[in-house]
Amino acid sequence: MQLSTAMRNACRTASTIARQNACWLQEQMSPYFFQAMADEPEALGTLVREMSLLQHNRHLILADRDKRLILACVDEPGSLFNSLQRVGDRGISYAMFSHSYSPMPGMSQELEVQRFEFDRKPNSAITAPAAPPLPASLKRTILRDLTRITATIPRRTADRLLTLLWLNNPEQVRQSPPARTAWLIWLFERGNATGGLYLDLRRVEHKGIAETRVLFAVGNPPQEDFLLQLAEVFNRLNIGIRRAYCLTLSNGIHPYFLGTFFVQQRDGHELQPDSTLARQLQQELCNTQILANNCYTYREWVSKGIIAGDYAALVNAFTAFCHTNLAHNQPDRFGLEDIQSAFHAHPEMAMQLLRLFRTRFDPALQQREPAYQALLAETTALIQDYNTGHRWLDEIRQTIYRCCLLFICHTLKTNFFVIEKQALAFRLDPAYLRQLGAEYTADLPETLPFRVTFFFSRFGHGYHIGFSDIARGGWRTVIARNQDDAITASNALFREVYVLAHTQHLKNKDIYEGGSKMVLVMDASGLEQGGREHENSRLYKLQYGITNAFLDIFITDNGRVRDQRVVDYYGDDEPIEIGPDENMHDGMIEAIAALSRKRGYMLGAGIISSKRFGINHKEYGVTSTGVMTFAEVVMAEQGINIRHDPFSIKLTGGPGGDVAGNCLQILLASCPKARVVLVLDGTAAAYDPNGLDREELQRITLQQDLDGFDPSRLGPGGMMIFRTGKRMEGLRELHRRAERLPDGLLQESWVPLDDFYREYGSLTFKVEADLFIPAGGRPETIDAQNWQEFMKPDGSPTAPVIIEGANSFITPQARQQMQKAGVILMRDASANKCGVISSSYEIIANLLLTEKEFLTHKERYVQDVLEILRKRAGDEARLILRRWQEAGGSQTYTDISDLISQNINSFYHRLFQFFTSRPELCLQPPFKAALLRHLPRILQTEARFRRRIASLPTKYLAAILAAEIGASLVYTSNRDDDFEEMVRRHLARLAA
């Protein structure tokens, strides 16, 4: 028998028994095994010498080093799973498993060899590589083998993916057969092309033995125990892994998993790729992206065979939905543990609700509707009759089950039966809120949304709420870095997104899109030691997975969901536009746009704004343009021309932020006599009664946060306190404070945490100024409990004019009280509306211009949009002031603002319905002229662009007309004259 080189080296000093073992290994192990172990002759030598020890031991350590562990063990069900449990969370970068074809000499069990490597490369090692280049001859061989697999992968893509494999694990690329590396390139490309999740099952033969090859690619997999969870899936389904090669690498942004498994059923039968078991395997493997392996449903139900993994994930989604819908109003009665126990303590009720859900949405079911109605009646009766003898507890659980029942009944479409998913999506009819009852919705705005969409994933959940058919608003992700933060954020989640969406709807009155908002809570607990790179990886995983789930249910053809696995009870196109918000990074914005375009969503890349093909809010200061226009109009009413007269101003939000930074930029450029007496952001607070040094402010504005301000530039009486740069003295946390004393000396000190927060929190309220612009900071900073701190001892405000540049900085109750005390207050829905208006014009550009055309004419287009923003802001500011004067002060400014929004939105709703029912009118006079007036000047005047307007979808033409006519009716009308004219026309019709 001809032994391999590696085996000959291992056997040179071996005994006769060891040589027999070596011969047996040569015959019974795959040739790929020896190639994979060619760099470990000592481990092979240990194996041939000590293999007989496995008659009395379950495993044998062949190598155990910092970055490598190699085990030989007796093959038995669960052996790989058990080894992975022992390995723990060491961060596996490469794993190889191989079985013998027959039992070991003198034994009835086969041999299994497991190799683990722990050498994951950080993203920085990929983006700034120091490794030597891939040998040209090896590269040619691998790429030649790739062409035998497929000719569809572009050479540039193949080169890039091969380079990533090499940078992450050059030894494996060097040692592996070129054909295997070629298959990895193919799998890597498929994973990227399908949104980061790809699964392929194929029948293969090796030495006459039929096996099923499972290729599995996961972009940004769960970071802990992922391979362990995959092994559990195979083990639970009684599928044995004969050989496997798994890589976890970095693509320079986040981890990527590439797994190759050769499997057989443990009963000896072949696993047919189109069998029921194979489909169950696909479902369970993909479900690892949604179901965490440390949750109750996994531990107690899935691992014990009570329930399949996908339905356990659905129970977790039920729990999250019921918690977020009930806890915002009554957190003490409906805490997370209360909701969980309702399902966990009574699994039979959970199973009943699961059956109802499956009956409503399983696309394979025949005669779905009558079966669903019968099961619905049965489930309703079970909930009504639920009784354990604990009255108070039973009432709570009945409410939870009823909430879940409403969830199932009012879901109109879901991607649950789409196998290749990384998150669950449920589009609901918001009428469920009325049936839930006022007892649970009293803290929400009265207006019912147009749509509610719930999302659930492994590391987070949240909602998109929209108040009209065509809707837009930002997507923010709240990062909860510990369990207390996660529960607290989830308690308030539904109210937060509802209120933000409602405010956005009031704000969106000038554009054709109604208001919406998307808010997710991401559980980042346990990642503190992993650093920002791990946190960002989880953030990207959550956002990308949610985006794919969003597209699963909102990509339509002729009004019906394209994916036939989605049962669609809604049946219409839904154009939803998203804007970036808190914790939405530029790279993810681009990724979402590309994914939407690739998957064929009706808006394409226009699903999200502020990309390269867009108007960057921070660069052009679009939101701040509206805020400062409001400030200019309102201050002029007080007799102060901010462009010429002296005045003082205080701001929250830092010079490095979008809104505050651009407000400062406009102030410094256009208001030479303005004194900025206070700036406060998340890094520091700076106060100077004579105005902060303008040159120093200019130096850091739009470049740095406030902690970059040089305290030596403070004037007499000025001071700074810093949240950053803290230090510890024993257990005391101290913060830096700098103050310019009356004698001119700059005194620096360190103050305890309590003193710091006491001073830091009071500055917003106590510092006096002519104008206050809250342009940053957490929502509800000024509320019903603390608004009086904004008043001086004589009862007058520390700032008589407030222009809200930040969303919900002041609560509705506090706004009312402050206005009664004499504050002129322009609320967020009016004052900071220009950001969303600008984003709307980005979408119009996306619909009417090519990317090349937009970039060619970008500056002209942006200037046209800025002109529109100044007009829209000025129109509303003047209208609010005029109506306040007409009412003699009997209405507050914020009430007038709300009424203006309601008036415009009411017109919009009626006009949109009218034009969608009469689409032929949209391009006829005088309606076409109104449509053109809504657009930037370049689109009105350039004939080639103007002609394209006719190609816009009917819904968009109707919506643009409704927005333009509705807004102009309110902004330009004189109510008394208009009423008189309406009466005259009515009487004229009667007379005729």
Rg on CA atoms, Å: 33 Å
Pick out the low-confidence regions.
none
Q: What is the overall number of helices?
A: 39
**How would you sum up the global shape?**
globular
What is the average of the pLDDT values?
91
Give the helix proportion (percent range): 40-55%
Structure write-up:
The chain is of the alpha+beta class and about 1000 residues long. Helix content is about 50%, strand content about 20%. The chain contains 39 helices and 27 strands. Strands 18, 19, 20, 21, 22, 23, 24, 25, 26 and 27 form a ten-stranded mixed β-sheet that branches. Helix 31 runs antiparallel to helix 33 (about 860-885). The radius of gyration is 33 Å and the shape is globular.
Write the layout of secondary structure elements.
Layout lengths: L4 H7 L4 H13 L2 H6 L4 H10 L8 E7 L2 E7 L4 H9 L6 E10 L6 E8 L5 H5 L8 H14 L5 H14 L1 H6 L2 H16 L3 E10 L2 E11 L6 H11 L2 E12 L4 E11 L10 H12 L8 H7 L6 H18 L9 H9 L2 H15 L6 H17 L6 H20 E4 L9 E5 L3 H5 L1 H4 L9 E7 L2 E7 L4 E10 L2 H25 L6 E10 L7 H24 L1 E2 L2 E2 L14 E5 L5 H14 L17 H4 L1 H16 L9 E6 L5 H13 L3 E7 L3 E4 L6 H7 L18 E4 L4 E3 L2 E9 L5 E7 H14 L4 E4 L26 E3 L8 H9 L3 E3 L1 H4 L2 H15 L2 H6 L1 H29 L6 H25 L9 H7 L3 H5 L1 H4 L7 H18 L3 H17 L1
Parallel strand pairs: 13-14, 13-17, 18-19, 18-25, 25-26, 26-27
Antiparallel strand pairs: 1-2, 2-4, 3-4, 3-7, 5-6, 6-8, 7-8, 9-10, 10-11, 11-12, 12-14, 15-16, 19-20, 20-21, 21-23, 22-23, 23-24
Helix pairs in contact: 1-4, 2-4, 5-11, 7-10, 8-10, 13-14, 14-15, 14-18, 14-21, 16-17, 16-18, 17-18, 22-23, 25-26, 25-31, 25-33, 31-33, 33-34, 34-38, 35-38
